[in-house]
Amino acid sequence: MIRITDVTSAANPVLKSLKTLADKRGRREAGQFLAEGLRVCTEALGAGQVPTTLVFTPEAERHPLTQALIAAAGAAHATILRTTPDLMQRLTGKDNAQGVAAAYPIPDTSLARIDRARSNLWLVAENLKDPGNFGTMLRTCDATGAGGVILLDQSCDPFSVEAVRASMGALFSRQVARASGPEFFAWLRQGDGQLVGAALDGRTVDYRAHGYAAPCFLFMGNEQSGLPAEYAAQCDAVVKLPMHGTADSLNVAVCAGVLLYHALDRLGG
Fold it and tell me: pTM value?
């Protein structure tokens, strides 16, 4: 018998606890993050991730995929709440909330968890600030079969509501790690891996002229300042994308997408 609790008040302690997951401090203290949307939660279930708390509206409950989530959450003895569209909107902070939200444990994001043999391609991002860019990059990793994203230094929180939403479920199928620059470079040199930076320093070559070797780590810099010179110096190669118009730079997620697909092609993907 699956136990579902009907919630009609914003004062409900479980809803109040879930609401704190919108803040980084709340996520850190709870060790959990919030995912919103039936598609994202279904992707999580497909990756073997069952929520600790599941919330849905009566309308969303009728969907077969929601029923599958309820069954999995019930089997795992998770907390299951049925609530109103208004309270779901308050929980997710979206006017057009999709009717399903769930909390999941924050996974281990240490470099030791990264299995470089899992994929021929990886993304590394230094001081990446925009959670939307992070989510898009992770989603492109999923599309290209890349292993995931390694965030360096003062990058955004990959488990923020914005990042999870932008990843469209890729957060559950790709690996994510966080480290300082020195920690990453030390880890990388402990095994195989070609580090290819995207920058405009004096030794850059056209991205199409470089010979990519697996496992390949594509290294992106900050959205505004780009890849620091001292980090570019650590790369095995530095490549650039030609700019034929008046703009002097590309969005970092767009640049990462171009490089991922090109490297995938060169590596025989």
Answer: 0.93
